[in-house]
Write a structure and sequence with these properties.
Layout (H helix, E strand, L loop, with lengths): L5 E6 L2 E6 L10 H17 L4 E6 L20 H5 L2 H24 L4 E5 L2 E3 L1 H7 L3 E5 L3 E3 L13 H8 L2 H10 L2 E3 H6 L5 E3 L2 H16 L3 H15 L3 H15 L2 H13 L18
Parallel strand pairs: 2-3, 3-4, 4-6, 5-7, 6-9
Antiparallel strand pairs: 1-2, 7-8
Length: 282
């Protein structure tokens, strides 16, 4: 697939995905919503990458939904004839597809690190809230923009942010649609660190990605799986889940390699996680 909204490079087990429409503020065109899950799912399925670094070209990370998406455009003849219930059912399915475009980041088998500069608005907030680690520049700012256009955010922000920030703060931001700075995002735990420049931020993100990529990819995948599971389950359920997960995954070989590399004072050489096969794949 040719991507119009992203550049992609795999180097040293790090998949660097960059929003490539910097001159257009990296707004989310219709192509964006199909390209992102295709690209992220492909990286996740192949298993060669151990970390995904998500960044953006230009002055701003993402200015949210492209306004052209709100134009009516061509209406299919069968839609014109359908009753309201059927139209709404179809709209529901479209929203679920849009939600997966964001959720694919959370569902990827490897951690996703977001590097954010400038504006991160609307759908941009949805996107970074589904990542595992977030870094920002001093000039970054965030906005839950949907309320400003008469809409409730519906592709992830309202579901994920209350697990990342104090709920009262999230409610205020969602109700008012005001901008909040990188400093405020750092204070409330949305971002891990703030940097003076985009170059400094990318250097740090790449350093962290390299450190993660040097760990057992099987264990890293398990950590992400377990932490995601923890969010929606009780402590007892999560303890049972991690016990079952670790038993099923059998980390013996990776543990041996980790101990051996430490004794020999060299980098460990872990096997890649296997390519995800499709049931109906030839």
């Amino acid at each position: 697939m040719d991507y119009t909204c992203f550049n992609f490079e795999l180097k040293g087990h790090i998949a660097h995905v960059s929003l490539s429409r910097g001159k257009q503020l990296n707004t989310m065109t219709k192509a964006f919503w199909s390209e992102l899950p295709h690209l992220i799912d492909s990286i996740s399925d192949q298993g060669d990458a151990r970390v995904i670094l998500l960044s953006a070209e230009g002055k701003h990370f993402c200015a949210g939904m492209d306004l052209a998406n709100f134009s009516e455009g061509e209406t299919k003849k069968d839609s014109l004839k359908a009753n309201l219930g059927r139209k709404n059912e179809a709209s529901y399915r479209v929203t679920r597809d849009l939600q997966y475009t964001i959720s694919c980041l959370e569902k990827a088998r490897m951690p996703v690190i977001a590097a954010i500069q400038g504006a991160c608005i609307g759908g941009g907030v949805d996107m970074v809230s589904a990542c595992d680690i977030r870094y920002a520049t001093n000039d970054a700012f965030f906005c839950i923009q949907e309320i400003n256009i008469g809409l409730a955010a519906d592709v992830g922000t309202l579901q994920r942010l209350p697990h990342l920030m104090p709920e009262g703060v999230v409610r205020e931001l969602a109700f008012t649609g005001r901008r909040f700075s990188a400093k405020e995002a750092l204070e409330h735990g949305l971002v891990n660190s703030v940097f003076d420049s985009q170059a400094d931020m990318i250097d740090h993100a790449e350093s962290v990605a390299t450190e993660i990529a040097n760990k057992s990819p099987l264990a890293i995948s398990g950590i992400k799986e377990v932490i995601n599971y923890n969010r929606d389950h009780s402590i007892e359920e999560s303890l049972n889940y991690v016990a079952l997960w670790n038993t099923a995954m059998n980390f013996t070989d990776d543990m041996k390699e980790a101990f051996k590399s430490q004794l020999e004072e060299k980098d460990p050489q872990f096997e890649k996680i296997l390519k995800k096969t499709k049931y109906l794949e030839d």
